[in-house]
Every structure is written in C-alpha cells, then in structure tokens.
TrEMBL record:
CDD domains, A to Z: M3B_PepF (cd09606)
Protein name: M3 family oligoendopeptidase
Source organism of the structure: Komagataeibacter melaceti
Family per record: Belongs to the peptidase M3 family.
InterPro entries: Pept_M3A_M3B (IPR045090), Pept_M3A_M3B_dom (IPR001567), Pept_M3B_oligopep-rel (IPR011976)
Length: 557
C-alpha cells in the first residue's frame, strides 16, 4: 500500500547539502565505480524532484499563502544550482573514459536525453532561469487573483465556465465580456511580463550560442527526433484538412441555432440542447469513476482506488487556487497527484480523464530504472492522457447526466477537432514571437490576430475590445509558463484519435496497446513510442486526412 498523501514529507535541500551529495557521485566516479555513481545520482534527483513537486503543488493549491509562495521562491532559486550539478555530472558520464561501463549502468535513451540536456544550461544563465521562474509565478498568481462578478456571484476564471456554456446567449456573452474585461484591466502588466520573458529567453539562447530561443526551446523540451520544419508541415496539414471541417461544423451549428453570425461566445455551446453536464458533484463522480475504471479491465480500477484512498486528488475549484489542471508526481514514493478545478461543466469529465491518463502512465512506469524514463517527453505524455479520454467513451454514460452519453461523445469529438486549429495557432504564434523577439506589444497582438484569421477564420469577438485587438493569447498560460509546449497537445491528439479509430473495431486490442504504451514511460523518443503502439506519426502525410474522413462520417458533416 502506498503512503497517504497527507503523510508526505521530503527533506528540504540546501545548496550545501546538494553540493555534498552530488560530490559523492563525483567521488565514486573518481574511484571508477560507475554503477554506484549512477544509482546515487538517480536517487538524489528523485529526492529533489519529489520535494520540488510538493512545493509547486502547495503553491498551486493556495497562491495567496505567504509560506507556499516563499517556499516556491526558494525552490526557484535553488533549481539553477541543481541543474548546474546535474549537467556537470551528465557531461562527465557522457565523456567517461570507459564508455562500456557507462553503457552497462545507464540506458542508451537516457544518454541520448542527456546529450540534449547538456546543451541547454551554462552557469552564466543561472540567474536568468531563476528570474524566468519568478515571472512565471507572478503570471500564475495574477490570473488566480481574478474576482469576476456575474449572475450576482463572485467567481474566479475557472468558475466562469458554467456561464460561458449557458444555453442563454446573453449569459454567454456576459461571461465573455467579464472574462476579457479582467484581461483588459491587466493588459499592461501582462504585456510587460511577457516582454520580460521573451527577452530573458532570447538572452539565454544567445548566451548558449543559439541564434534565437527556438532551437533552445526544442532542446529544453528534449525533442530529439523532429524539429521546427516538421512541426510547420503538421500545421499546414491541420490548415488543409481540419480547418475546413471545423468551419463546416460551425456553419452547421449556426444554421441549427438560427444564428446569423457565430460569435466567440457561441463556440463553447457545442450541443444545441446545451452541453451535457456531469452526473453530479465531486463525490458521485468519484464513485462513478471507480465503476468506470473497474469495467475497463486490467489494473486501471485498482490504480484509481490507490489515488482516491491515498489522497492524491485535489479536484474542486476554490478561491485562490491556481487555474487549470495538471498531474505531478513524487518519484520516491511512486505515486502521481492530480490537480484540477471542477466547475460543474463537461470539462470536469474531460480534465479528469485526461489527467488520469497522465497519472496512470506515470504509475505504470514507476519501476523503470532511471528518473529520466518515468515520464516521456511531453508530446508522448499527452498521447497517454488524450487517448484515455477516448478509451473511456464506452463507459462515459456513468459520468454524465442520464441519457446524455451519446451527446457527450459527439461533443467530445467536435471539441477535439476544434482544438487542433487553435493548438497550431498558438504554436505558430510562438515561433513568430521568438523569431522576432524585439516586437512591440502592439506587434505581438497584431501577429496573433493575423494567425487567428488564418487558422480560425470564423472567430468573431463581436467587438469586445481586448480579444478583437489581438489579446486572446494572454489567457493561454502555456505561452507564458511553458513556451513551445502547446503543440504537444495537437501532435498527441492526432495519435489519440488513431486509438479512438482502432477502439471502434477492436476495443480490447486498443486498450492493450494503450497499457503497453503507458508502461514504456519515456523509454523511447516520441516518434518511436508512437510507432511501438502501432500508430502513424503525426508528421506522416495523410494521417490527419484519415482522421478527418472518419470524423466526417460520424458527424454527417
């Protein structure tokens, strides 16, 4: 039985304690003891990652806590020192005079990842990395501070979602107005924060010898098997195959609803009868989820029981909690943790199943021999999460109001397809921004509007000032906190939908392939993991065309 989350306490590292422990690794290498050096190096990193994950989680759970913020700042300041030690030892192992001894102690893919890692850090950028983390925390806290008045209530950004999906068009418009009024009030600070981040990242890249931040960002994401040119071709495939389908879906919705114009506040109402809602509140959903995962077979149900009974779930929305959802983990105890913000909409079901995919993968790969393999790179990690969203389809009736299962499945398919144009728009925007780091804030907003017109030609904000002027991107936290991450969702969705297509004719085979993929963790790079699961790479011509054909048949579009 795993330890209960409430009992978790990890030693608080210091610069001195870390220097001592990493120094012990160096001593073992001096003595020619590569196996023990590799084991100790891995153990130190697991200890640090567990402590750091808990610190980050505590801050996300209460962004107004002075203690949580102080500990987060402490961790941010410590991280560059840890990275410096890690890069030094990785480089030493990669250059070790007895490569055969290293190859026996460390997997080939781990070494491949390290060859990328050592090109992303130098002590000269340590202060910049600490500042980058501080700015990211400022953005998180700013958005968490939002207090929005609507319908006689005060809600945060996550709590706005039920109003944004109301069947009452005037309520949806008011939700959109309130949302963008917050961003408009904070536009100057958001522009300033991002400007600082862009110049900071560009400066780090130049210090490390890169022409721009783009190649450094790809290396920080540990992308070893594809580059910007491959991603650009994928964006074009989305433009060619998916954008026309989504445009047709929205035109059809307009006709069904009798709207002359589809505005941005109409897009979240995917189902003309009202988006299907969860079957009930948190406790009911957790009981239903246990039944659902038990029915799916294998050890998925047992794993969810560990998560629920062990306290490794924080799903309810509340004031001062950071927005969004994520999965983190504590490698010294072999357990992941899911963070979310339930708000009574279908997103509760989507986010929960998505993050459960991440958690299940991390748990399945918890016994792999190196910390570098416990998670895949984020492109592959998102396959694990998005695929589970689709694989739960046969049992999703449990999670939504009675009689709404088929409507939920159709809505999930439409929202998945609709995400792809937006996902590549975010990615293209970041490539433009970091290729031209000296853009003014106004030029960045115009760049977003230009790309939005390309990938989302239907988007009409009805004159709402901030998004109409190109400020929509400021609500996308990944752009600030995790640059170049967002395309991973689009690449992974292309793979997840292949799991969906396979599950329609061979549900057991699709589930078995999914479990096997999760168990591999990060043992291979993205394209090799995809191939091992019997999927086609998103970079392979025609893959999206096949997905779109199947979707059109199902949606009669």
């Amino acid at each position: 039985m795993s330890r209960h989350f409430d009992s978790l306490v990890f030693p608080r590292p210091t610069q001195e304690s870390l220097a001592l422990r990493f120094g012990q690794v160096s001593t073992l290498l001096d003595q020619g003891n590569v196996p023990d050096a590799a084991r100790l190096f891995d153990a130190i990193r697991r200890d640090y990652e567990s402590w750091s994950a808990l610190v980050g989680l505590r801050f996300a759970q209460d962004t107004t806590s002075p203690e949580a913020r102080a500990e987060r700042d402490y961790a941010d300041a410590l991280t560059p020192h840890v990275t410096a030690h890690e890069v030094t030892l990785k480089r030493r192992l990669l250059e070790y005079p007895d490569p055969a001894a290293v190859a026996q102690a460390i997997t080939p893919h781990t070494l491949e990842l390290w060859r990328t890692d050592i090109t992303t850090f130098d002590p000269r950028i340590a202060d910049a990395l600490e500042e980058e983390a501080r700015l990211s925390g400022t953005y998180t806290a700013l958005l968490a501070s939002a207090r929005l008045e609507i319908g006689g209530k005060s809600v945060n950004l996550s709590g706005l979602a039920p109003y944004a999906e109301s069947t009452d068009r005037t309520v949806r418009r008011e939700a959109e107005r309130v949302r963008w009024a917050f961003f408009e009030r904070n536009a100057t600070q958001l522009d300033t924060l991002f400007d600082q981040m862009v110049h900071l990242r560009h400066g780090m890249a130049r210090t490390l010898g890169y022409e721009s931040y783009i190649p450094l960002a790809y290396r920080r994401m540990r992308r070893s098997d594809y580059g910007p040119a491959d991603v650009a071709r994928f964006r074009e495939d989305v433009l060619t195959h998916v954008v026309p389908l989504v445009h047709d879906i929205l035109r059809q919705r307009c006709e069904t609803m009798g709207w002359e114009v589809l505005y941005s506040w109409d897009e979240p109402l995917i189902d003309p009868h009202g988006n299907p809602r969860p079957a009930g509140g948190h406790d009911l959903l957790m009981a239903r989820a246990q039944t659902m995962f038990d029915r799916m077979g294998g050890d998925l149900g047992a794993f969810f029981g560990l998560m629920r009974d062990g306290g490794y779930l924080d799903l309810m929305n509340r004031p001062d909690k950071a927005g969004g959802g994520f999965c983190t983990s504590f490698p010294t105890v072999g357990m992941p943790f899911i963070f979310a913000n339930f708000n009574g909409t279908h997103h509760d079901v989507n986010v929960f199943t998505h993050e459960m995919g991440h958690a299940y993968q991390n748990w399945k790969s918890r016994d792999l021999p190196a910390i570098d393999l416990l998670w895949p790179t984020m492109d592959a990690a998102e396959v694990n999460s998005m695929a589970l969203e689709f694989l739960t389809w046969p049992h999703i009736d449990l999670m939504v109001e009675p009689g709404q299962g088929e409507r939920f499945r159709q809505m999930h398919l439409i929202s998945s397809l609709s995400f792809l144009p937006y996902g590549v728009c975010v990615d293209h925007f970041q490539h433009e921004i970091y290729a031209h780091p000296d853009m003014t804030p106004a030029q960045r907003h115009e760049t977003w509007r230009r790309l939005e017109r390309r990938y989302l030609p239907w988007r009409d904000y009805g004159g709402l000032p901030h998004p109409t002027q190109g400020g929509r991107w400021q609500a996308q936290g990944h752009i600030y906190r995790s640059p170049f991450y967002y395309i991973d969702y689009a690449l992974a969705l292309c793979c997840a939908m292949q799991f969906w297509i396979r599950s329609r004719s061979d549900p057991q085979g699709a589930m078995a392939a999914y479990v096997a993929l999760c168990a591999q963790g990060g043992a291979q790079p993205f394209t090799r993991l995809v191939r091992s699961a019997g999927l086609a790479s998103p970079f392979q011509p025609g893959v999206l065309a096949d997905v779109v054909r199947t979707a059109r048949d199902i949606l009669n579009t």
